[in-house]
Amino acid sequence: MSTDWSDIDNRLLDPHWYVTEDYHEVFARLRREDPVHWTENDWYGRHHWTLTRHDHIKEYLLNHEMYSSRWDTRVPVSPKRRTPEVRHAQGWDVGVGTTDNPLHDLYRRPINKHFSVPAIGRMREDIESLVDEILGEVAGNGSCDIVADVAGEMPLRVIMRLLGIPESDWAYLRENTARWREPADPRWIIDGDRVKTAEQGLNAVMEYCTELAMQRRREPRDDFATVIGNLEIDGDKLSIHEMKAWFSAMIAAGLETTRNGTSVGIWLFLTHPEQRRLMAEDPGLVKGAVEEVLRWTTPTRNRLRIANADHDFHGKRIRAGDWVVAMLPAANRDEEVFENPNAFDITRSPNEHLSFGMGIHMCLGRALARLEMATLFPRLFEVMPDIEMSEEPTWIVDTSATGFATMPVTFTPTELPARS
Amino acid sequence: MTDIIFILDDGTSRKVEGADGDTVMRTALKGGIPGIIGECGGEMSCGTCHVYVEGLPADDQRSQDETELLESLDEVRECSRLSCQIRVSGALAGVEFHVPRPD
């Protein structure tokens, strides 16, 4: 007798299903019973494959010739086709996340050097002073919201300053990026309509980025927006349209994911004091701690690819045009790869999580995200040794983003101590 | 199979058997060579598989993309390469891959 999956199928892309941690149990069941699962998802309005095993997802991420990113990088808020006009207006046609090869590499390769491990390593002191600036602003208050005041501020300031965006525009961009990326959130949903909310947020960010591109083309400055504007492909500088797609990708990817990983990371240390103690006693464990936070949290929950051809995949027949959705937290909790996978263990090694993806679309900003978290975690607990939660944090209502909406904490007011 | 020779920062030499067609970066990982991380898996985005090498076959040259990524590294030399871009073959017999000091 076959299992009736219909109840599960209709939840897998429902943002409201992800406000507790119960989905991990369902993912575990899928891994065991039907790891390449045809999902009759009438709730979403489109049926799709759901992958949950680490080895399968790794294979899928690496095979960009079979699995196309042309539709989107994550499962979009609506399964409806985007017309060519909309694809162009919203930059999907030249975005580094939504182009396949050979086009993809033309856009991605020239920018890699700016985000390589050594290039980001040279930002260490800048990130340290930025972390101190943020902690210094809240240290004297005795309470704060970790999400808004610390975890959100860090990547916001990093990306906005990097691009050279004036501080007066940060709140506008943060709000519209949130609408675009986490449109089901009751704090900013428009008319109860996720699709409309995402469109409005996305269009606002795109319009801003177009203005920014035109402005930098007219008046180059000493910022990364200008660097992008000066990138050359086959001897020609990027067009305004191409620049805009880059800016919006950096804003979307930079703001939300690092904030989510960081806030959940702080919560993990607060709820696992023995792990926090280990990290404080041995600074050599910080790097591994960041990897474990990334694995445990999996800030971006899913990936979307479109099958390019009919093929067999681990016992199932996938057809050209089928949507194939990978659940990254399922891979990151796969007991075949990670011993005791639900445990938060900062000494876990190796730790081959898939939180940044893999292959040609692997997260461009991953070295920067790692540096931000590795700088913040130890410093935060040094500045606020008695930090505790004043309320339980609440999970963001979203299909793809795993993080907290709010996380209020209290601590003894203090002045920022000098760095040792 | 071809033996790939890695010279570590302290001057010690290590031999790792490489499968023809595999990359020198992956061969180094299999052999646990310190200083070669290959974090991006060979996509030329991380810059953590830097080697100094001379005596490669004449047709094994840096691409433009590889040259650009190398620009972001410390202590780049004329003979710098990303080992993820070099394929193992019999032509690498006797070639020495010098690994910079790990961070």
Please name the CATH topology of chain A: Cytochrome p450
Spatial arrangement of strands, main beta sheet of chain B? 2-1-5-3-4
Characterize the biggest β-sheet of chain A.
5 strands, mixed
Give the rounded overall mean pLDDT of chain B: 95
Kindly provide the radius of gyration of chain A, computed on alpha-carbon positions and rounded to a whole number of angstroms: 21 Å
Assembly level: heterodimer
Large-scale geometry of chain B: globular
Q: Which range does the strand content of chain B fall in?
A: 15-25%
Alpha-carbon Rg of chain B, integer: 12 Å
Query: What is the number of strand segments of chain A?
Result: 14
Count of individual beta strands of chain B:
5
Total number of helices of chain B? 2
In CATH, the architecture of chain B is: Roll
Proper CATH architecture of chain A: Orthogonal Bundle
Helix content of chain A: 40-55%
Give me the number of helical elements of chain A.
17
Shape of chain A: globular
List keywords for this structure.
heterodimer, A: 420 residues, alpha+beta, Cytochrome p450, 5-stranded mixed beta sheet, 3-stranded antiparallel beta sheet, 17 helices, globular, B: 103 residues, Ubiquitin-like (UB roll), 5 strands
How does this structure look, described?
The complex is a heterodimer of chains A (420) and B (103). Chain A is built from 17 helices and 14 strands. By secondary structure, chain A is of the alpha+beta class. Chain A has one domain: Cytochrome p450 (Orthogonal Bundle). In chain A, strands 1-2-10-7-3 form a 5-stranded mixed sheet, with helices on both faces. Chain A has a 3-stranded antiparallel sheet with strand order 4-14-11. The longest helix of chain A is centred in the middle third of the chain and has 32 residues, at 240-271. With 103 residues, chain B is of the alpha+beta class. Chain B has a single domain, classed as Beta-grasp domain (Ubiquitin-like (UB roll), Roll), CATH 3.10.20. Chain B is 14% helix and 21% strand. Chain B has helices spanning 24-30, 64-70, and strands spanning 2-7, 13-18, 50-53, 80-82, 96-98. Chain B has a 5-stranded mixed sheet. The longest helix of chain B has 7 residues, at 24-30. The radius of gyration of chain B is 12 Å and the shape is globular. At the A-B interface, helix 5 and helix 6 of A face helix 2 of B.
